[in-house]
Write a structure and sequence with these properties.
Number of strands of chain A: 0
Oligomer: homodimer
Distance between the termini of chain A: 66 Å
Largest sheet of chain A: none
DNA sequence: ACCTGAACACCGTTCAAGT
DNA sequence: ACCTGAACACCGTTCAAGT
């Protein structure tokens, strides 16, 4: 059943159409889009035999590269010509908003072994913002490493709080929280501190956007201080 | 061929032995240990039918959880009772050295949907260091989010520089570098800046340990400043 | 020359049959 | 009761056969 989906997709296959359908399929699978995605499922979605895809992409890896480039290409270029710090901040926040619309993308980008053209173009642009703002090539280089995947909007959290949290029953949650508090008292204390201004219970009750901006500003403020101090990689870091 | 490996592995199966063999198999597969690892390959390595594993682990997910706990359990507990900043620094650097010995581990940890017991115990210990150092529960909470996966030694780089870089021939590398410099001039400039004190060409020529410590110190210094300033999440961040 | 069905070499896991 | 072989429902990709 459901062999033929949308009739509009009966147009002749092309690399464009394959890539668009691939992104749409991954988007539709939500947070587990990276795992749920397969060549065979994509072919089925396009109403096509699996082998037909190989006329337009060399293999799955190349298709994933193409999907990454589509997503990274969505990131808005900076409009304001503000100081480097707000420009980079705004750039990274819009990268984050793109990643939030394609929840599979971070995992797929991480699986690539090297940068794709769109990623290189994006990094080139961010580097340009730092350099035009007066940062030395030396400092900019280390700063790009320090920001790392956060440049593309990665939260870099240890576990995905915004994901498919099972949301257990209040009774179960209470018992689990009590067990957790006994075994990991420091974790429990921190979780309680987080729950102060949030309504949710232990765990998923954090404001992802606040945590992202907190970490980003911590880094940008630090970078600004190094820049004003005339830091170089040969000078003592403290 | 090579049906029976090491004779010592003929001992009766146990959860312990399964987990140890799983870690050893992933280690042996190098950087691609996460992808190369499979239940069937592990069973073969143990000289056992695949189904035999399911007597000791519920499924592959639970086995991966167990592998993560083994690796995280290897992280050395802090010995010195120094100030919180050097204690956390030392703790994170030893987490990093463990991750460098198990190149598959970061990818597997990221694939887990929630923290395992050993990870919780580790986080509990780091939180304790911050709290004993005088940081508020509020600040500690946000700081733990900001450090994120770096707490476990993740480099958080966009692409793995230490991995299987193809190391192209000098001629190819030169041509590629010229093309890259034309398309992405800012990237090329930064790469050249990095190559100053390094012998390698564009790309993999960065000192991973330096970049890791640079980013870590950027964060720890920023945290220290917020702490001394009496920062709270309700106060203005700038 | 182009397209595609069957096939190959995998995978995690279920389940019934054998001991 | 325990163990395990065959089987199921996948996967990416090769390749030869059909048009």
């Amino acid at each position: 059943m459901a062999e033929e989906r949308r009739g509009a997709e009966r147009a002749p296959l092309s690399r464009e159409r394959v890539l668009h359908a691939a992104v749409a399929l991954a988007d539709a699978s939500g947070a587990s889009g990276a795992e749920a995605f397969s060549m065979r499922r994509l072919a089925q979605e396009l109403g096509v035999v699996p082998m037909a895809l190989y006329k337009h992409v060399a293999n799955k890896e190349e298709l994933l590269d193409g999907m990454v480039d589509m997503v990274v290409g969505e990131i808005a270029r900076p409009t304001t010509s503000a100081d480097w710090k707000s420009a980079v901040r705004q750039q990274i926040l819009s990268a984050r908003s793109v990643l939030l619309h394609h929840r599979w993308a971070a995992r797929v980008i991480e699986s690539r072994t090297g940068p794709t053209p769109a990623v290189l173009a994006y990094l080139d642009s961010v580097i340009g913002t730092f350099r035009d703002g007066g940062l030395s090539a030396d400092l900019t280089h280390h700063v790009m490493h320090a920001l790392g995947s956060r440049l593309l909007g990665f939260s870099q959290e240890l576990f995905d709080t915004g994901g498919a949290a099972p949301t257990p029953s209040p009774a179960t949650a209470g018992a689990a929280a009590a067990d957790l508090a006994r075994a990991y008292p420091r974790v429990a204390e921190i979780a309680a501190a987080a729950a102060h201004d949030m309504d949710s219970a232990v765990g998923g009750g954090c404001d992802d956007q606040f945590e992202f901006e907190f970490a980003l500003d911590l880094l940008l403020d630090g970078i600004e201080r190094l820049h004003h101090r005339g830091w170089t990689s040969t000078s003592p870091s403290t």
